[in-house]
Amino acid sequence: MLSGLIPSDGSDHEELKRRLLAGRYGEVRMLFFLGKDVFRWIEQCIEWAERIPELHDAEIAGPSLPACLRAVRQPL
After folding, report:
1. Which of 11, 27, 51, 76 could pair with 15 as two cysteines, CB 3.0-4.6 Å apart?
2. If you ran DSSP here, which 8-state letter would residue 3 be given?
3. Phi and psi (nearest 5°) for 53?
């Protein structure tokens, strides 16, 4: 509506900007919490690996885990 690509619903320009900013704020919050969840999951994976004797000696750490996951994801 702000750029004129879809018809207006009668809201003024300031109201449309407010809605746009509220939506973007929601997106940033969602990405923040998604990032927190990913880091929490990585920590849980490291804790789990430390309990397995074979994996405990592999010295799996936070930065190495995403690299391991990328390697697993690569097609053979």
Report:
1. 11
2. T
3. -55, -40
Name the residue with tokens 């799996």: 60
Taking the C-alpha atoms of residue 44 and residue 9, their distance in angstroms, rounded to an integer, is 47
Coil, strand or helix at 34: helix
Q: How far apart are CA 67 and CA 40, in angstroms?
A: 17
pLDDT (tens digit, 9 = 90+) per residue, 9-53? 777 878 888 888 898 999 988 888 888 888 888 888 778 877 887
* Helix (H), strand (E), coil (C) string for 35-53: HHHHHHHHHHHHHHHHHCH
Q: Rounded to two decimals, what is the model's pTM? A: 0.49
